[in-house]
Amino acid sequence: MENPVIILGAQAIGTAALDAFLSNDVVVYCLLDDDPKLHNTELLDVPVMGNTDDGELLKLLGKKCEVFVATEDAASRRSLTKMLRDEYEVVPVNSIHQRASVSPHAELGHGNYVGPNAVVAATAKIGEGVLLSPNAVVEGQATVGDYAQLGSGAQIGVGASVGANAFVGAGAVLVAGVKVGDKARVGAGSVVVADVPAGQTVFGNPAKQV
Fold first, then answer.
1. Interval 8-22: pLDDT, tens
2. Contact between 73 and 91 (Cβ < 8 Å)
3. Which residues lie closer than 8 Å to 45 by C-beta, 6 or more apart?
4. DSSP code of residue 38
5. Within 13 Å and on the Cβ side, how many CA atoms surround 3?
6. Which one of 1, 70, 82, 160 is most buried, by most CB atoms within 10 A?
7. 85-110: per-residue pLDDT in tens?
8. What average pLDDT does the structure give for the chain?
């Protein structure tokens, strides 16, 4: 991308997104975070300059700067994305690590993070504000809903689906065709062989309700 990026969030997700942008030689103008202890510090030599609602910096968005939302929880990412759309008429860009593999025939929304060695196959569909950790795999015809999060090494099988705001832990496997509902949680290392209702937490091999 031609314009530099402002990252909202300077915690773990902000660090990962910053690394992804830098891996593609994208200039990051600054990071913003609501923790005052981080202000006037640097992260990977990029300054943390103020709060996520800093109007003086956010007015650069649009023609001069792009933006990426990297706050830790899905509700915060959703509310900040809405604010950016309503007040600044911008949508977050995607942060895709140079070592990730995203098929040109996959469908991606806005504001997604795709970590190193993650794979998004042809015909897969990713919503907006999704976090795909390193080595996560989304196979063909699989779908991942808005603001969902996949842990490191999670595998979403062919035609499987992950609902909005759902969480799939590190190393978990969804076999082909299963459905994980909105706001459901799948524990790390679990193998999901049956549908998981919305809001339910499952764990184990095979995954069962906790």
1. 999 999 999 999 999
2. no
3. none
4. G
5. 14
6. 70
7. 999 999 999 999 999 999 999 999 99
8. 96
The answer to whether residues 70 and 7 touch, using CB atoms and an 8 Å cutoff, is: yes
What does each C-alpha distance from 187 to 163, 169, 192 come to in angstroms? Answer: 15, 5, 10
Q: Structure pTM? A: 0.95
Q: Please say if the pLDDT value at position 67 is more than 80.
A: yes
Closest CA relative to residue 38, chosen from 60, 20, 59, 54: 54
The two structure tokens encoding residue 152: 């490191």
Dihedral (Cα; 187, 188, 192, 198), 10-degree rounding: 30
Cα separations (Å) of 208 from 87, 169, 174? Answer: 43, 14, 13
Which amino acid is located at 81 in the chain?
A: T
* Residue type at 159 in one-letter notation: G
68-166-170-102 Cα dihedral, nearest 10 degrees: -50
Sign of the Cα torsion 92, 167, 154, 15 reads positive
What strands, in cross-sheet order, belong to the sheet with 143-144?
107-108, 125-126, 143-144, 161-162, 179-180
Range 197-208 average pLDDT: 97
Q: How far is it, in rounded angstroms, from Cα 172 to Cα 60?
A: 40
Is residue 23 over pLDDT 80?
yes
